[in-house]
Known about the structure:
Elements: E1 5-6, E2 10-12, E3 18-20, E4 29-34, E5 39-59, E6 63-66, E7 70-76, E8 82-88, E9 97-100, E10 112-115, E11 119-133, E12 139-141, E13 146-148
Antiparallel strand pairs: 1-11, 2-3, 4-5, 4-12, 5-6, 5-11, 7-8, 7-9, 7-13, 9-10, 12-13
Amino acid sequence: xxxxxxxxxxxxxxxxxxxxxxxxxxxxxxxxxxxxxxxxxxxxxxxxxxxxxxxxxxxxxxxxxxxxxxxxxxxxxxxxxxxxxxxxxxxxxxxxxxxxxxxxxxxxxxxxxxxxxxxxxxxxxxxxxxxxxxxxxxxxxxxxxxxxxxxx
Length: 152
């Protein structure tokens, strides 16, 4: 696994507060968003690990991640409805719409979209943390955005 969030990234936990990714523990519940159910839920962390990355990105000055960290991106299909799919940070473009919290309310049942305004690329060693959610393939919420680890 080689995606992840950098030290200091805040993740929403079950009690409605945030914790830095490096302070999370296995067995702790974090808030997730189920695409299948269309709901904000919670699930237990099954594994946390860290690694050093040599390249990383900052999106909108808000979140710094490994280049292959996944964001939930909205695209407009041939119909009026929006199509949501997981896209790695390195494949995001300025102008893309990504899922985020509406008003920093982690219990909002309908996350909103935020336009990617800036993408900054960096080189150099940085420590990233990887979060695996027990038996789920859903995304977890940082303070603002919905993220997911590498898709297998």
